[in-house]
Design brief:
The radius of gyration is 24 Å and the shape is globular. It has 116 residues and is an alpha+beta fold. The protein has 2 domains: 5-43, no CATH class; 49-115, Lipocalin. The protein contains 1 helix and 10 strands, in the order ββαββββββββ.
């Protein structure tokens, strides 16, 4: 195998002479791509904790996959597309909060809820 090969005027770097190099590299890439969502989820921002507005009157406490809404209801929620979607008692989306870059939540008609 020549030290360097050219393809349409571009230099290609030589690959090791191991017969399985390309196959092993391909498998490593597939594994890395498959595990990427798991790593991103593990490194993502956690909502666990209590968020309050500046007056302390509006609060949400996230724990696991439920949210305690103003100390009255434990409701299910999902996080997608930079938003928290809180399900009402009937299973439909009852409230949508925007997640800001600093992990502050924005609640309609209330404003910002910051993590305490």
């Amino acid at each position: 195998m020549p030290e360097h090969q050219t393809h349409q005027g571009c230099m290609l770097h030589p690959l090791p002479n191991h017969p399985h190099f390309n196959k092993e590299l391909h498998h490593e890439k597939i594994i890395a791509v498959a595990l990427l969502p798991l790593f991103l989820a593990a490194c993502g921002k956690s909502l666990d904790g209590t968020y309050q507005d500046s007056t302390g009157m509006a609060s949400l406490t996230f724990k696991g996959d439920t949210v305690d809404y103003m100390g009255m209801f434990d409701l299910d929620y999902t996080v997608e597309d930079g938003k928290v979607k809180i399900e009402g008692m009937n299973g439909e989306t009852a409230l949508v909060l925007k997640i800001k870059d600093d992990n502050t939540l924005v609640m309609p008609m209330v404003g910002e809820l910051k993590k305490r």
